[in-house]
Amino acid sequence: MGTILEPERPHHTGSGDTVPSTMRTDTPADASEHARTARKGGAPPPDLELLVHGVGGTTPEEMLGDPRTSPVTGDETAAVYRRADDIDAEQRPPEDREGPDRDGPIREAYVWCNLTSGNSSRALWLLLLPFMVANLAHWMRPPADRRERTVRTYGLLVRLVALTLSVLLIAGACEVALDLVAWQCAGSADCAGGKSWLGFLSPENHGWWSQPGRRLALAAVLPGALTGLLWYLSNRTWSAYEASPPLERPVDESAPEAGNRPALCLPGFWYGRRIVARLRAAHTAAGFLTIAAGLTLPTTTYDREPGGSGLQDTAGWALLTLLCAGAVTVVAVVCYRGRSESKVDGELDRITITALPGAALAVLALSVLYAGWSRPGWVSTHQLPGNEAFCAIAIGEGALIVTMAVCALVLHRAAPGRTPLYGLAGPAVAVLACGLGAVLAGGVAQRFADWLDGGGTPGEGPGIAPPVLLTWLATAIPALLLVLVVLLVIFTVRVWRVRNRLLPTIMDGYPGERPDAVRTRRIAATIARAGLTDSAPWIVGPVAFLTLLFGALCVTAAWVTDEVPGRAADGAPGAVDAAAQTAQALGSWLMGLAFLMLVTFARRAYRSPSARRTIGILWDVGTFWPRAAHPFAPPCYAERAVPDLTWRMETWTREHGGRLVISGHSQGSVLAAAAVWQVDHRTRGQVALLTYGSPLERLYGRWFPAYFGPTQLLSLHGEVRCWRNLWRYTDPIGGPIKLPDGSGPEVDCDALKDPLAYGRTTEHPLPAPILGHGDYQADPAFDRERAGLLARLPEQTPPPAAEEAAGQMSSGRSSG
């Protein structure tokens, strides 16, 4: 698994040079002195364009349009590159620079793709998808509008939902290892007899491991190892991806409207070390306690039967007391503290993060010893008492999500806006996270039961079977798929109708061209499909509601009948009985197939660039946000990328005193905006923002209104010196910014023409492609807008004396 954590080294240069040795080592004072000496006569300092790519990744050679590039600063994971001929561009006048940008700004490329992609084994991160989705729910709350108590309650509820997901995953592993393998199969002569790897556990052999408690104790190694692996990955990825301290500055409380500034301006927003460490300790302890409960509950049940040992019964009650105390402590740790964003909080609650998982591991060790205590008369029959546990987890998740929805409605009512689903996007996404968790846990259990049972339908007959609730949940999957098919048909018809409505308008953008029906239909269809992005709430909302409804019905049916759907429908009319049997069999296969497809498609996605772009959009959105609710979610690349960009902008402007345009495409525009929010006021006065194909308003502004809503984007427009946004109607991701005060046209340019030419022209002798979300820099408007931004920035003077620059940089480093 270590390969998951090692990013691939990017291809730096096309000339075969050994690029790590070309990293610049000049001190800020030396570089400032060199630049000042080179610009004799007080010539203005150079300009810089800092390019930030979007989803799917790219190479510095493609971004800079030159096969020879060299890193300026950074490492194998993320770095800033330049053309090899521009390494010392600040020390030369513009007329001495080479290349197509000789009269324009110096160009740098920030390459961060290795933070989210790399070798194909990193696709295993997709198995943490439920955790990532639950973490997203934290950031989807409506704006606060001075309701801090409700905001804190909402965040607390999301953290508790995330905790139940960890318990659900470990409980699923316990179901496979403890119940299906150690209890049911190893306890059955028919099942264990055909599997040599289980022979030493079979009661027929009368060996030391044949007692049920000892089989359970041995099987606990698997979920225990899984819990330890999750802890290791969370701790290791924090060190590798999120441990970059930002430039620390105290919040100026005396500044006008300091209390109303966007959260992304706060110095500690991109450094959540303390909360992640606390949550990691709590979730790890919860995993160990879940395994301990899986060992202790069936053992104490046997010890309480007539004729049992009084000493063993007393030990069991003591262990149950420890388990309850541990569970209360874990919940208290999760509830106690949220994120600290007003400052860079580098402290750690060392007692909590060390003692809590250590104490839980000690309780697990005691449970192993207790279960391994000799009980010669104990025989494993039927199933472990796991159905009640899974029902309790599902009921707890449902109650927490309903309470979340109440908080979200209160917040939305206080500050209504363009938030999707009337402010219920966060609870809806939390429902989907719980559904994904059930599919992962239940899918593995269903397929294992099917494999151990020799192909029989789990739950039918006396063979190996998972808990009844998992079978009921699997039965609901065909109904959900049917709903998705209906929605797909509806949206297909909608695209067809929108395309037909657009057909008469396409030629308005190409006056004088000869109409081509095929070309016109293709352009109109691309625009219609791009508009489906705005209809995402109509998919998320119904699916989440039906998932919650079906989940409640499944829990009720499993609790009341204690039978699988096929058995519960016995005696019902023939059509109902047949439907129940079909849904049960089909759902069992679909639940297992969903797990296998997730793994298979994940590996393909990281080997195929086209597939990576398909899921990369949602994946990069999910991993953009810090791990505020679930510490086992995939790492947040922005906690490395945003400080990288902030440091680069501030150090370059201090060192050279020039104007800077930060250009961000797609997800790179979100990183650029977040970095601009983090720089100080002096640097912001020298920086212009150019975004293209940007989801800032279309996606982030709607789904994350508390952080990228209209008020926050308007604040960014007011704080940055100048900002322009390029977009196309054919782009399914990017769109206009649409500021609420009517100043949107100051930011948004007119929609770019796509394709650039309708038919064959002198400039385009071959048919021009429909670019959609890509190749914005190929449009002539890109260079015009960049030049316009530089013209709007004030002319700068040469940088201060070397001693002053060195002092400023030293102060910046010590504060960071």
From TrEMBL:
Coiled coil: none annotated. This is Integral membrane protein. The chain crosses the membrane at residues 153-173, 216-233, 279-297, 317-336, 348-373, 393-412, 424-449, 469-493, 538-560, 580-602. Residues 1-11, 82-104 have a biased composition (Basic and acidic residues). InterPro entries: AB_hydrolase_fold. SUPFAM superfamilies: alpha/beta-Hydrolases (SSF53474). Keywords: Membrane, Transmembrane, Transmembrane helix. It comes from the Bacteria. Residues 15-25 have a biased composition (Polar residues). Residues 1-104, 791-816 are annotated as: Disordered.
